[in-house]
Hints:
mainly alpha
Amino acid sequence: MKLEKSTPDVNWQRAFTFTIYGTSVLVASYFQLYFSHLGFSSSQVGYLYAVGPFISIFSNMFWSMASDRYRTTKKIMLLLFAGQLGMGLILSATSSFYMVFALITVFYFFYYPVFPLSDTMSIQTAQRHGKNFIVIRVFGSIGYAFFALSIGYVLGNVGISRTLLLVILIAGAALLLATRLRDGVKTDGQKMEWNGLWNVLRQKEVLWFFAGVFCLALPYRMNEAFLTLTLKSMGASEGLIGWSLLAAALSEIPVFFLLSRFGERFKELPLLALAALMFALRFFLMSIADHPGTVIAVQALHSVTFGIYYVTAVRYITRMIPDEFRATGLALFTIVWSSAAGLVSGTFGGVLYEHAGRTTFYFIAAGLALTACAGFLARHLLGNAKVPGASMDSRKM
């Protein structure tokens, strides 16, 4: 990896990436506790979790296509964080389930597109300065680790009822940082056209990849939605929950760097199959865990599950999707990995967790991960699969 002195826009992008994962910690891990604090049942929490992925199917496409069409990401980021800030203020004064359901839907409309658009800007910024994408994206992992621990202790002291106050503060900070960002490389003379995008998406290799991603995303999102409730049922405090999130976030950082340097020596599909296999092991161990300390230890497997998966999947998808469709391509990837899977896992997972129990919940999650492993491995063994499209030099990923 290159170690040359960073330019200001690289550092602003790093700071922005660091900050946005504070909201990610809250949404992924503490919203569930906040909703439980309001008196909602596990099924209701599942529905509130699922509505975000549902609305994000449309919001990701809407904002990302706007980014590709109008060739700006910065202005869209400003709109997204202004929307998050406004909805956080309104939500903080609401406790009715139906009102929360309606308002959180709007909040998610502004929340979910931030991450694929941020990755798009990070990739473009890295390209512009001849750097590796990971030297920017790793600050998201560092930010997640920082906020996972600090938010846990803050909420442990001030109470889970202050969750939305933290959302407002972090969204406000991200909005200020977004004013310092620089729009990335623009593809001269090429506009996003539906026909070109459709020609890429209907390729067999792309469809197979998205199917495998969806199958793996289901158990990942099930675990994400109910990890904090699992820990809470074992008697874990908010601070201990923060440690479990910290263990996961820190564990992925060295894997990110290792794969950014040596990942090109390995083919993507076998790496994705390995990540899915390790996910299956992780969820199996969660099914038999009976103490918060054991869960924290299992969280360290995030390194060889999500760490391997994320870097490899982004490298693969940016080779499959041409430059002029980059924001839209990453949005589609996010829709499959986060939105569609979150919708199914939130509704199905909530009912399963409530009526079948934690052990069965995680056994099924492990089975789905094994299915994804088999799919990636089968595609690799079939061979003769030519990746369509051309994108950035993968060595820059």
